[in-house]
């Protein structure tokens, strides 16, 4: 099954989250009531007045004179987008981002780790709401384009599942413009042919449709019949693999923090091996109770994909940071950067024990296999036990 996850009014929702006084108000990001700028995003309250993205700010002000206009913070939205992507990465390495606020996910093969597609979709929604205080709409279907349609049907905070046996009954009554590639010009051509719904396209003679619309007609006919062979194309250009945890209350227990770092390292290292890559830069992210954030990195002499090595370095970074910043912690994160393919030859240092390296690698392989077969909470290091059982 394929998931399409789309954040709800992303930019505007971030502004309402960060500025509670804006909750419930029509918020417009970008543009101004008097300037020439255009609207970058509008909250759902603003959309009720007909305001939408790319609309001139003056027009938006005319439609809703009491709308609150805020300056966009693209760097901040990108940071939040990375946090959303990090949550996706906990459940599958096969992620195809479409923009900062939406992506396709292929969860085939991760069921034993995280449950079926519906369970994963619910878990992702819950994590986004609990950790980021934002909402997302989720569409789940066996076809990519159907998942995207489904995510848009029940916004905001929607959750729509379409099973294989339900494809035709789901698609048939929808307006034809729901099909990918049908814009305003194409819509007029289809209407001239009497095609108003997806059912109309499905029942239309395929050869006749191709004769009138060319290859594009064949493409539409296939979509209307639920035929779409396109899979999720993962973003292989990702520069790092990361995992982080935000605590519900501030933490200063050294043993617990150590366990959290071990847990984060286990998760990132497993995803690293699953993506068939190795890392040579390990970074610890540390956010204090006053929300001031610090990062500390270490570059390894040779790339690795071994959980034990990642834990060793990350724990050392944690201890160094705690010596300098002993205050309570709100968030911890581990990221693995400087990624290379795991098929790349690695030169061991003079201090590496080849037999020990081989033993560590076998342990990781066994843990990965058992986690895939029995679930992620089956086999793990003792150091992360306390944290895992608090979740």
TrEMBL record:
Residues 2-183 form the UmuC domain. GO terms for biological process: DNA repair; DNA-templated DNA replication; error-prone translesion synthesis; SOS response. The record marks 11 as: Substrate discrimination. SUPFAM superfamilies: DNA/RNA polymerases (SSF56672), Lesion bypass DNA polymerase (Y-family), little finger domain (SSF100879). Mg(2+) binds at residues 6, 101. Binds 2 magnesium ions per subunit. Its cofactor is Mg(2+). GO terms for cellular component: cytosol. Keywords: Cytoplasm, DNA damage, DNA repair, DNA replication, DNA-binding, DNA-directed DNA polymerase, Magnesium, Metal-binding, Mutator protein, Nucleotidyltransferase, Transferase. GO terms for molecular function: damaged DNA binding; DNA-directed DNA polymerase activity; magnesium ion binding. It holds the Pfam family IMS. The active site is at 102. The keyword Metal-binding applies. Its EC number is 2.7.7.7. It catalyses: DNA(n) + a 2'-deoxyribonucleoside 5'-triphosphate = DNA(n+1) + diphosphate. It is found in: Cytoplasm. Its main location: cytoplasm. CDD domains: PolY_Pol_IV_kappa. Belongs to the DNA polymerase type-Y family. PANTHER family: DNA POLYMERASE KAPPA, DNA REPAIR POLYMERASE UMUC / TRANSFERASE FAMILY MEMBER. Monomer. Poorly processive, error-prone DNA polymerase involved in untargeted mutagenesis. Copies undamaged DNA at stalled replication forks, which arise in vivo from mismatched or misaligned primer ends. These misaligned primers can be extended by PolIV. Exhibits no 3'-5' exonuclease (proofreading) activity. May be involved in translesional synthesis, in conjunction with the beta clamp from PolIII. HAMAP family: DNApol_IV. This is DNA polymerase IV. It comes from Stieleria maiorica. The gene is dinB.
